[in-house]
């Protein structure tokens, strides 16, 4: 939205009490383009790689310290790459990666040159979201521009760095950077704990803390029993625990009963004790966001999703989109899915008489906490009707 920015000369000098004052160039609008929200608010954009005619699907991720391509995409389009000798770290593991160097990425109205893409396998993300994921866009893009993410209009506006005036309402953060933005938050549960967390638009969840941080801070009430859950990320599937905390405060904005993941962080990707965890897109999508990495600033203003209800449902299973089917896997022993009689490998035909075969729709239908949902599955080519009582975290 162009009206957010001052229109002033490129470089103006004024004499104030005999002192020469210099004004920086104004931020200059470049382009805007659409995005799509995946489950948890994760942002999906389309862009063209080099001169290839097809558009690729990228997740826009402030939790990524670079920019990356899927290994299957590399193979399909015969994109040259070389060993890097470097490693990337994710929730589910550590991987050595290759690099595809000196490439470009084109959005409508904007081409970004001289990009080095690291290569990773994103099959699991494609299976979780039911759509091909060709890569992840992170710091290599954000560091060059001012990027406005408007969750109301599903538009992204991009500006050249420069002097800007943020909207009159909202809150301006001044994050620390270790390649990724790190912001202060106040969490309240058994205790009030002030700590720093990664600002992560690539995480389709509300809030995550490391197990060690929780143990040392005594944040979460010990009488509240977290439920085990399987989550997917870099390196594969990882089992965590899920509960909630009484309140999470971001600047002046407060959220009650926030679903919270607890991660056993063996590789210390969360950099404890410097950081306690991360805040994800199911919180961040409730704001329209201006990411101004060149000035180390992030502006937040509540949007129409600010008071959306959180998802407290718990099934204890994961659904994947595989070869055109929605398949159940990673069922946790003793969970509602386990108790209902669902089995790993069951193919979902319908949920509550919805036969769409769209994984995002099925996930939404399984958010009816405390209700019974009829799930029709195919098991060894035999239809089976399951009555699944959806549990509740906490």
- By DSSP, the count of extended strands is 31
Distance between the termini: 41 Å
The share of residues in helices is: 10-25%
Content-based structural category: mainly beta
Walk me through this protein's architecture.
The chain is mainly beta and 394 residues long. The protein has three domains: 28-160, Acid Proteases (Cathepsin D, subunit A, domain 1); 171-302, Cathepsin D, subunit A, domain 1, CATH 2.40.70.10; 313-392, PDZ domain (Pdz3 Domain), CATH 2.30.42. It is 10% helix and 49% strand. It has seven helices and 31 strands. It has helices at 71-76, 123-129, 139-142, 211-217, 281-284, 336-340, 359-365, and strands spanning 12-16, 19-23, 28-34, 36-37, 43-49, 55-60, 67-70, 82-90, 93-107, 110-120, 135-137, 146-150, 155-160, 171-173, 176-177, 181-188, 192-199, 207-210, 227-233, 236-250, 253-263, 277-279, 287-292, 297-302, 313-314, 318-322, 325-329, 347-351, 372-379, 382-389, 391-392. It has a six-stranded antiparallel β-sheet, with no helix packed on it. A six-stranded mixed β-barrel has the order 5-6-11-7-10-9. A six-stranded mixed beta barrel has the order 16-17-22-18-21-20. β12 and β13 (155-160) form a beta hairpin. The protein is globular.
